[in-house]
Write a structure and sequence with these properties.
The complex is a heterodimer of chains A (about 45) and B (about 300). Chain A has one helix at about 5-40. Chain A is an all-alpha fold. The longest helix of chain A has about 40 residues, at about 5-40. Chain A starts with a helix and ends with a helix. In chain B, about 45% of the residues are buried. With about 300 residues, chain B is mainly α. Chain B folds into two domains: about 15-170, Tetracycline Repressor, domain 2 (Orthogonal Bundle); about 170-308, Four Helix Bundle (Hemerythrin (Met), subunit A), CATH 1.20.120. Chain B starts with a helix and ends in a 5-residue tail after the last helix. The chains are: A mainly alpha (about 45), B mainly alpha (about 300).
């Protein structure tokens, strides 16, 4: 792998990791909200 | 090229944008719009968070089945100009990654719908995904010139699922919403197929204009447009909606018929600009948007206590 290819490799991996992290945080918040709403509905 | 592309795909991590492109984001906008209309037009109440989750699950299910469609059709896409540069035929992604991503997205969407909203809506979503990815893509699309009719069935699920997410039961109204998109798709797509030069014939997909000819296509456009009119007006007839939807449905259906007649009666000439076909195609998009918007407006008016 040339240095340019390696930079591109790292850039792509980093971008993907950020997207995965963002998606995970989004779903954590969403599931928390769903849980609160559904518990609230039972009372 | 065939030898270098898989190598690059194997070496480099795939761009996340290529994963996103696999979900057909432009198709998804129509899916999200009709799903939102299904949720808003249904009688009853749904908590905004749960309603949002239902829309999200429908969008993810549509995305997942689109990914499976692209995984299955990578070879076909490679042979057509319009689709040649998609992530898989472009060699920017491994096939197994696309398959796994599609299955994962579909699975998560169904479980999310079941846990957060309800298992009837989740079952319908699973049915829609299997219908599009397996029955349509793998089985019937390469086998019958009525493939557009069958594919339209897949596009017809979102408002049905959105409605059922609110009510928890399947009644006449959500089935009519399904039927409207089902009968709308053939004239919409075939009007486009008449004026766009496509290379489906080259890759062995039996599109109606190629297989049965232009005359048969024009006849079938007319047939489905005539069938669509009573189905579009039916929600008002059976008392499911008020006059706002009813009057919109009557006017829109009349315009659709008026625009379909010249498409039905004429034939292509030398150096034809295909104006009637283009007009019908453009109007078909307006038709669906206004009809579903009217459905929501009708429900809002009913809540406001306007006379039906």
């Amino acid at each position: 792998m040339t240095p340019e290819e390696e930079r591109e490799f790292i850039r792509r991996r980093k971008a993907r990791n950020w997207v995965v992290a963002g998606t995970l945080v989004f779903f954590v918040v969403l599931f928390y909200a769903i849980t609160i709403v559904r518990i609230g509905a039972q009372h | 090229m065939a030898s270098t592309a898989p190598q690059i795909a194997a070496q480099m991590p795939t761009e996340w944008r290529d994963f996103f492109a696999l979900t057909k984001p432009r198709v998804m906008t129509l899916v999200i719009f009709t799903a939102i209309c299904g949720v808003l037009a249904a009688p009853g109440t749904i908590h905004p968070i749960i309603g949002f989750t239902a829309i999200l699950a429908i969008a993810m299910g549509a995305g997942g089945s689109a990914v499976l469609n692209m995984w299955w059709e990578a070879d076909i896409d490679a042979g057509m100009k319009r689709t040649r540069s998609r992530p898989l035929p472009g060699g920017r992604m491994r096939r197994e990654d696309a398959r796994d991503f599609g299955i994962f997205l579909s699975g998560v969407s169904v479980v999310l719908m079941g846990l957060a909203v309800g298992w009837l809506a989740a079952a319908l979503l699973l049915g829609a995904i299997i219908y599009y990815a397996v029955i349509y893509t793998m089985w019937l699309k390469p086998r019958t010139p009525q493939n557009i009719v069958i594919g339209g069935g897949a596009g017809a699920f979102p408002p049905l699922i959105g409605w059922v997410a609110v009510t928890g039961e399947i009644t006449a109204m959500p089935i009519l919403l399904f039927a409207i998109i089902f009968f709308w798709t053939p004239p919409h797509f075939w009007a486009l197929a008449l004026f766009v030069q496509s290379d489906y014939a080259k890759v062995g997909i039996p599109m109606l204009p190629v297989v049965a000819g232009e005359k048969a296509t024009r006849r079938q456009i007319m047939a489905y447009t005539v069938l669509l009119a009573p189905i579009a007006i039916a929600p008002w007839w059976i008392g499911g909606t008020g006059w706002i939807y009813g009057s919109c449905a009557v006017v829109l259906s009349a315009l659709f018929l008026i625009l379909a007649v010249p498409v039905f009666t004429r034939m292509r000439e030398e150096t034809d600009t295909m104006q009637p076909e283009k007009a019908l195609f453009k109007f078909s998009i307006v038709y669906l948007f206004v009809l579903f918007a009217a459905l929501v407006a009708d429900r809002v008016a009913a809540y406001q206590g306007w006379p039906a």
